Records
---
Amino acid sequence: MASNPFQPTVTSIHPVTLEFDDAEVELEYRNDLLPSLKRQARLGLTMGIVLWLLFSLLDSIFLPGYSFADTGYLHATIISLALLVIALTYLRIFTSYNQQLITLVALVSGAGLVVKMWLLPEVAVAHYFPGLMLLIFWCHTYAGLRFLGACLTTILISLAFDFIYLFQAALTTSDLVSYNLYLAGTNLLAAASSYSAELQGRRLFLGRRELDNERKHHLSRSLHDSLTRLPNRELLEDRLELAISQSVRDERLCAGLFIDLDGFKDINDTYGHDVGDMFLQEVSARLKDIMREADTLSRIGGDEFFVLARDIPTKKAAQVLGHKLLHQLQEPFILSDFHTIPGITASIGVCLFPYKHCTSADIVRRADHAMYKIKRGGKAGIAFAEDYEIDDSTA
């Protein structure tokens, strides 16, 4: 039985990292998310720059005696870095390193806030600490960081705050405990929010992916023969119409070859339908072996196949292809340890196109008529449609 190329991969989501356990599905998810991630990163970084500038402008109001020159290098570094990453979202490097780049901006911004609190008078802590809480929420909700990366980033920022004030002893123990309670609460709330949002997003992705694979599977089944998995008549007609328009536009010759297996009914009657099905699958595989990538091999009936050959240079080349197809059927068919069927012959009708007012249905009909001329003349051969007078009114 032919495998289903659209069968969805069974995967699960890790409860901590939220990554899919299947690496291919994880990569597919990240590629699917990338366009929206770029937009979110640009918006989030722009919002971050605005908030940073707002806090800086308020410094002179809430911090008496503050001079912009005291920490001007921090402002310039952080804003320049954020602008650089916004620019990188338009380049290929962001595709591979988006999480690292956003994390770098978050860590540098957090370090900048902590350093400003350390360098400026003690009153600056109360002024900048809300900014630290906003930065934690920003990492989890607007920056574009995945859950695990946002958690690690905000934990490092919180530890940097504790490190500075534990060793510098600028805060009392009660103040430090109070600030850490706020930090812990902010981290927990922000992490819970980002965990829920990412988990829901990943589940929605799996749902969309499953629906898309089901749609592709049903579309494939409707356009392919269930036994051989070759294109059926409906898909063949679509490809013929496309080949007609391209051949007219590019002034290139194409050929349609109608193949009818000689003696297949005897094989079915002698060996049974199961062996007959195996035989048709082997015929399909043999014919497919000599197909070019641009060509189409289709099964359009019980023992009838059709080849669409594009860009055939001459009528002679089409005849050579027909002989190759016949040759593929001459070797014995070893279907199992118990069933070996001698090689067979086939009757092939060829219709070259484009010609005036040609359609996909007419090409198949003309090739079919030429094939029946061979069939009635003793089988096993090739005939071209233009070699016979064909009544266009014939159905």
---
Amino acid sequence: MKIHHRFFSPRFEKSAALLIAHPHLSIAEIASMTGFSSQRYFSTSFKGWKGISPSEYREKMQSE
């Protein structure tokens, strides 16, 4: 795990939970709620953490 992923891990875990629990929230809203400065930075960082984008993660989890 990259060092910055370790630092952001609690925020990523919270954002992953929000993506699943609140499908009506936009990615930008979730990024803001979890303390990321922009949707782009959040999406790039999330993809580095999970290997897929936040929207792909949401779709995958909803289909399971």
---
Amino acid sequence: MATEIVIVVFVILLLGYIIFLHVQLAKKNLYIETTISRLSEIEKNLSPEQMRHFLNEIRKTHRYSSFFTEKLFEEKPLHFLLGNAGDSRVFIHYTKEQSDAMNIIKEGFRFADSFYKTALPVSRDRLDLLVKHNSRKSFGDYLIVLCISDILFDYYAGQLEKNDLKAFAVENVLTETPPYRNENSDMIYLLPNKFVKGYINHQTGEIAVNPEYNPEFNSPVFEKNLQLLNNLKNKT
């Protein structure tokens, strides 16, 4: 009899705990839906100060504030990230180790086949940045900032189109080292470190600036790359 009572009590407690978890999940889902609804109504041209105020408001109103304790949307990191957005293409890439981030600053950004597999374009659209950051921040605390001058980018994009080289992207041209195939037969490219502005630790707000950064860097090798691609196309 005593055993049956214990089992009944255990089952009741278990059911109670399950109900508690369902209630907590429902609250969290409601919070997320409400937050997304509010974000959707935000003007896309919010200033860094206005965005920071909005995120601080969310932090104060709910215990799920851990999602908003990062430093990326503070004034200094945000300005470092988007300061060139008016005249340059800006991209972000995440990495876990500081040593890897420093190597990218020193050596350049290495990517396989498509630049856009690991580099996300960003703009002054804060909502778009927030969504992209939340989708990728688990890849690492170190956010690499890549910038390519609009003038430079548009020039080579125009040359690719003019020469009917639509299978290639601008980033495939902007390399000073010959691409090569890795053990997986992927074509590996190296974007020069001149296009690496630096990195932001989005957890601490730490910023590392690349002293060699130059988004307008135009190596003579880039034109040779174009000619090489054009010659290969004509041979096929």
